[in-house]
Amino acid sequence: MPADDLPHDLIVIGAGPAGCTLATLVKKYAPERRVLLLEKEPGPRHHIGESLLPGIVPILKEMGVFEKIDGAGFPKKIGANYVWGADRTVWENDFNEVNVTEMIRRFGKIPERIEYAWQVRRSRYDEILLKHAEENGVEVARGAKAIALIEEDGAVAGLETLEKDGPRRRRSAFVADCSGQAGFLSKFRGIRDYHASLRNVAGYAYYRGAKWKYTYSGHPDKTKIFVCSTGPGWFWYIPIDDGVISVGFVTTVENLKASGLELEALFARELAACAELAPLMADAERVADFDGTGESFFSHSDWSYLNREAAGPGWLAAGDAAIFVDPILSTGVTLAHVGAHRAAYTLVSHWAGAAAERELLWKDYGAFCRESAAQYFVMALFWYGHDKDAAHWWAEAGKVQRAWLPVVQSDKAAFVTVSAGLTQHYDRLFSASSLFDETPTRPEDYPFYVEVLKDAPGGAPVCRFGPDDAPRLLAAYALEITFLPAAANGRLRPVKRARFLKEDPQDAVRDALNPRRFVTRYHEYLLEALDGSRPMKDLGALLGGKGVPAWWWDGPGRKFIEELAVQGVLSAGVGERA
Ligand SMILES: Cc1cc2nc3c(=O)[nH]c(=O)nc-3n(C[C@H](O)[C@H](O)[C@H](O)COP(=O)(O)OP(=O)(O)OC[C@H]3O[C@@H](n4cnc5c(N)ncnc54)[C@H](O)[C@@H]3O)c2cc1C
């Protein structure tokens, strides 16, 4: 079996969104490293996961591939509309609502550019990402399948592969599993935990001549996806390229069994019975050989899971290989880009940093993967568990948003933020700018985020510090070390975070609802003074005086207290500025 002349620094298994993001960013920030991307398919391949979210835009920009994707002619997606449960009113969900609302409220104007993502044919989308990785110095092997791990001294040290010219042994300092649901490494390690109640199956097909209804799918130039429940499940209706609509049906394993039908027959029965979709499909024709697959109907397992570990000696997992959350909010590709972005930063920081920091870095990477997914688990579980009006969904999103971001938004705007995949960008920008006095990347890459988070004079609620309004903590908290990509340079910076314990922190899903806030040493002293474990004069001493100076109470201290009050973990006479 031929072996490589030189070992690689990183071998990435799988050229989907996760693998291409990781390989491209590692090469960008550590150009001296040898990075190999393996893809088992010899050429562009069909894949599910067509509806994307604006949360990926800053990452595509950082990768340098945004213009290529934006110029590829994919329909622009500005939101998602839903019909769910007994009430058949359409819930409008527009990615720009949060921005437009915020802009008008704060600045009296609407943004010049609007927030959007795309609906894509994945064979084309992934091919653009793969070529871009190659153009940026990543070595690519297509038709190369990872088949076994090479392990030495308890660490992964490479792979055995089956390639066009036969089997090979490829050695590498790191192996990244980005093999999607196949989960090459998690299979070997047995580390995948399926969620007990999100065990669905999906059947889907592609149609030409399906009609357009603006209230469901937006304007053809600026489209939306449409999601619509039926008795035993729900449909997606996603306009993709050349007048083709992707129509998919998701149901539980139990409902499929109870129907006594094959998935394709249940799909056809429910589509014909769906009051919203049946009229649109009357003259539609199914595409017989979609993407050269020879198939006209596809089925896919749709079980949600979290890996217990996302990294170990010599390996890491990112994207679907590490986590998968039900597609109800179209979050899969976003989580793949976001997770792989963090994996790249973690790996580059690992190479650049001291050995002592490495364990913390990888522990934090695992926590980051779980936390990113958990907020969508909360939403998916709520979604399947309720047949209520839209306000209940907005309110649930409000809880998720406030746990992560001390930003005052309506529940509806919070739903838009969460469902657009934006919480983590807001969080990152907000935290990095307030903690390190810098934004994580060029502000022009984040026009909305920068503007939305700018302080608006007199806008936000404030706290009073009168004798009856003394701040009081409403929840215990734990301090932990985490990391932030403070600048777009491939490096993470350590930072402390207070996590307030209202929900069970051991339950990854419920923990997503525990408010968290990044803290400086001053914040830490203030929290300790508020919980009675340290005298307030220590904070004064830290600030260089006897008592806490007025400038601090009126500035950074007040801001922090206001943030905690917005997050519901501190009672402090919140009201309008007098
Ligand atoms: C029913 C359903 C609907 C969905 N709808 C959406 C949606 O609308 N929007 C959305 O964002 N997400 C959606 N998703 C999720 C989305 O498909 C995934 O989250 C996304 O593709 C994950 O990207 P990835 O890069 O992690 O993995 P993948 O895109 O799966 O890429 C993995 C790659 O690894 C390769 N590979 C696998 N094994 C090997 C091996 N041994 N050696 C070499 N290469 C290998 C594969 O060929 C593949 O190219 C949906 C998922 C399902 C099940």
Explain what the structure shows.
This protein is of the alpha+beta class. The protein folds into three domains: 8-66 and 121-191 and 308-370, 3-Layer(bba) Sandwich (FAD/NAD(P)-binding domain); 73-119 and 195-302, D-Amino Acid Oxidase, Chain A, domain 2 (2-Layer Sandwich), CATH 3.30.9.100; 404-575, no CATH class. The protein is built from 20 helices and 25 strands. Strands 3, 4, 9, 10, 11, 12, 13, 14, 15 and 18 form a ten-stranded mixed β-sheet that branches. Strands 1, 2, 5, 6, 7, 8, 16 and 17 form an eight-stranded mixed β-sheet that branches. The chain has a three-stranded antiparallel β-sheet with strand order 21-22-23. A hairpin with a 2-residue loop joins strand 10 (218-219) and strand 11. Helix 1 runs parallel beside helix 5 (122-135) and helix 1 (17-29) runs parallel beside helix 11. Bound molecules: flavin-adenine dinucleotide. Flavin-adenine dinucleotide (FAD) binds next to helix 1, strand 2, strand 6, strand 15 and helix 11.
